[in-house]
Amino acid sequence: MTRAAASAATPARDRLAVPAWLLQHDMAMCPCGCIGKRKKGSYLAKTIQGGSKLLQQVMFGEDVAKARGLMQRVDPRVKLLSLLGLLVVAGLSHSMIMLGAMYAATLALASASALPVGFFVKRVWLFVPAFTGIVVLPAILSVVTPGDIVLTLWHWHGSPQGITQQGLVAAGRVVARVAVSISLVVLLTLTTPWIRLLAALRSLGVPRIFILIIGMAYRYIFLLLTSVTDMYQARQARTPGIVRHDRAARAFVGASVGALLGKANQLSEEVHQAMTARGFRGDVKTLEQQRLHIGDVYYVLAVVIFAAAIMIGDHILGH
Amino acid sequence: MHIPDGYLSPQTCAVGFAVAVPVMATAAARVHKRVRTRHVPTLAVLAAVCFLIMMFNVPIPDGTTAHAVGGALVAILLGPWAAVIAVSVALAFQALLFGDGGVLAYGTNVLNMAIVLPFVAFGAYRLISGNASLTSGRRVVAGFIGGYIGLTAAALCVGVELGIQPMLFRDASGAPLYSPYHLSQAIPAMLLAHLAVAGIAEGIVTAAVVAYLQRANLPLLKVNHPGVPIDAASAAAGRSRRLRLRPGVVAGAVMALLVVLTPLGLLAPGGAFGEDAPEDLDLHALGLSKIPEGLNQYNGIWHSAIFNGYDYTRDTHPAVGYVISAIVGILAVGAVVYALAKVVALAAGRRGSANDPAAPGRVRT
């Protein structure tokens, strides 16, 4: 019987073949722009695609956090405290050499923690030019940072104006410090599973309510991100022709956010009911008790010695 | 608007935490008291929504990007204290998971986006929407303006925080240690981008969602608007209720405004017109040979000013003297405004009870 059904299905599948026009590549959607007119993806589409990329990134982060490496073995609380300490040290150090030494140390730690160094460097330096490099660039000019002119570009009322030595130093220092700070944070978050990071925050005195909200929001981000993607795809699917950026498009954005909020509100009601049904009374208990190992003590010692060396070196170089 | 680590001195970051932590604690306590166990899932979901809204970065010609925050929206829907928690949780994610906004600068970022923004936005929204019904267009406009002003206020705070860095922290050669831009550069740079792009984005998101909820999900809008009439008809019925003037609130608002505007004095170059002491007058430029007699005679007729020249320490600690003069001045202005508001409230109350036969004072007599 089943065989008969299967043999009957085969010609049927041939007959119901996908129509040719559906298999044809949409010219407008050709990403390389080799045929037809190249269409720039809309800003909305780009951001939503960026969202799914973000998801992948975080998933990858969780993989790395489970790998066996140096930083993964250190207790999250110790890592968090040493991160804060090192961030302050980076903030207080004035010398480019010392900031360079700190950056080199983060690279060494990254490679000791089974992080692909290329990925680590890229992740940090993709941020730095976008957030800092371009912003700081005008600061090298004497208009912003007056001082000893290194390169004269123009004259203003007879006095030379251009790139100043102080400006270069200041801009370089800000970029270096931002790079070191981001590296330190990325190093922590890539080598610590999210749940353990939250537990560490909790044991360092962050109120439980915040931990609970952060933990739940983390899950909802992905859920709501899927909702947004679905809404946007559904809209695209029922929009023939070119997407116009008109009043209707704006109304769509407003309605999407509104609908998202409505969904979110409903979801939170349901989750709350489910939580109270399971005995939630505004408080949570953690099962895992973490102990400090001797390795953590060595790590702390190493960080303290390193930080002291940086501060002393900075002091010597500064005078 | 997220300040990364490295732009602010650790000292500034410490001040940011000193302001942000007590406010966050108050917010947690207040929200906990109001909604009990329900707050955890609600705030978690709203934090996720704020995070998604902040993901939509709009590129700006000066090389940075700007984005809406969604804090104004949450403040309108669930009150500003809930917005404090929702936005600060979203900021915690961005700092820890995505490197957007610093970890040391977290307190400062919370101050700007999770405290200043929702409260300013909510204040403006309440002020503009007034007694309008829940479905009126005035609430949509109020939402837009609230979001716009709130985001702009947050941007102004960022500009001030970045701008004071080169004034306070320099190395021996005069090169700034942290953010290199002066107040006069940082504030316009932040404000232009946010007045022109991000403020509008925040305003549009807030107004569009308020309009959508008016059409499609009125119960959600009702949560934070207890006692507000739903449509124009019931608004007309309840209009006899008077808006009460609260002198304490008015005085507090005026003093807060003065504190926020204080840095403007540091920005303005030069002195004030017509306020020179007689010996500082440029007689030659004015075509005079000596100081006019009347000016000379009556100048300094009042000798017993406590804070002469905005200082009481006789220039031993000019900064301390200046700050104390500023505090005393603001308190004095607050006291005067309080007294004025009290008088106005009393007068209005008397007139209201005279006009309104249903007023309780009348019924009893």
Strand content of chain A: under 5%
| Helix content percent band of chain A | 55-70%
Secondary structure tally, helices of chain A: 12
Counting DSSP E segments of at least 2 residues, the number of strands of chain B comes to: 2
Distance between the termini of chain B: 60 Å
The global form of chain A is: globular
* β-sheet strand percentage of chain B: under 5%
Which protein chains are joined by the largest interface, and how many residues does each one contribute?
Answer: A-B, 91 and 77 residues
Describe the protein.
The complex is a heterodimer of chains A (319) and B (365). By secondary structure, chain A is mainly α. Helices cover 70% and strands 4% of the residues of chain A. In chain A, α3 packs across α10 (208-237), α5 packs antiparallel against α8 (165-191) and α7 packs antiparallel against α8 (165-191). Chain A has a domain at 68-198. Chain A is built from 12 helices and 2 strands, in the order αααααααββααααα. Chain A is globular and about 70 Å long. The model of chain A is unreliable at 1-13 and 26-39 (pLDDT under 50). Chain B has 365 residues and is mostly helical. Chain B folds into 2 domains: 10-240, Arp2/3 complex 21 kDa subunit ARPC3; 276-364, no CATH class. In chain B, 66% of the residues lie in helices and 2% in strands. Chain B contains 16 helices and 2 strands. In chain B, β1 and β2 form a beta hairpin. The chains are: A mainly alpha (319), B mainly alpha (365).
Please render the helix and strand layout as text.
The complex is a heterodimer of chains A (319) and B (365).
Chain A (H helix, E strand, L loop, with lengths): L1 H14 L4 H4 L19 H24 L3 H4 L2 H17 L3 H17 L4 H20 L12 E8 L2 E6 H27 L2 H10 L4 H30 L9 H31 L16 H25 L1
Chain B lengths: L9 H26 L3 H17 L1 E3 L5 E3 L3 H8 L1 H18 L8 H24 L7 H27 L1 H4 L14 H34 L1 H5 L9 H6 L9 H15 L1 H5 L15 H4 L6 H6 L19 H38 L4 H5 L1
Antiparallel strand pairs in B: 1-2
